[in-house]
């Protein structure tokens, strides 16, 4: 379909580019290969020669472990978007990036990521527990 028949093109391509960034995918051809679709399809979307089909969007979403509904909605293939379409939206961008890296990693890379983050997470949990205990002690003294 020509671009004039696809008013959502710009928003969809922006969402597609954001997805690529989250998953550290540099080129459309790499995304196409990962999703098992033709790189020409993505090129045609960018040129406004075609709209993406629900099938191709679903393949991209599945390959990148992203929710399908927001991509379908921004492409104009379904109505609206659930309020919880981006369940990570309230997280700090760094945490979103860590989650995206985890999702895009191999099992071995995931193991390294988890083993690297575990000491920091444990330290934060300990600090939170100390803060909770201190607040409880203050509360008991003031009673």
From TrEMBL:
Any Pfam family the entry gives: HTH_3
Gene3D superfamilies cross-referenced by the UniProt entry: lambda repressor-like DNA-binding domains
CDD domains, per the entry: HTH_XRE
Bilayer-crossing regions: none
Domain HTH cro/C1-type: 29-71
Name this protein carries in UniProt: Helix-turn-helix domain-containing protein
Naturally occurring in which organism (per UniProt): Paractinoplanes pyxinae
């Amino acid at each position: 379909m020509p671009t004039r028949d696809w008013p959502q093109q710009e928003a969809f391509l922006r969402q597609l580019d954001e997805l690529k960034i989250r998953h550290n995918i540099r080129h459309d051809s790499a995304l196409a290969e990962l999703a098992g679709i033709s790189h020409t399809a993505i090129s045609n979307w960018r040129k406004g020669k075609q709209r993406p089909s629900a099938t191709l969007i679903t393949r991209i979403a599945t390959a990148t472990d992203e929710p399908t509904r927001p991509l379908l909605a921004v492409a104009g293939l379904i109505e609206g978007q659930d309020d919880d379409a981006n369940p990570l939206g309230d997280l700090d961008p760094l945490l979103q990036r860590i989650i995206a890296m985890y999702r895009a990693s191999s099992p071995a890379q995931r193991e390294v990521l988890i083993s690297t983050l575990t000491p920091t997470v444990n330290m934060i949990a300990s600090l939170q527990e100390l803060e909770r205990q201190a607040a409880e002690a203050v509360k008991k003294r003031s009673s």
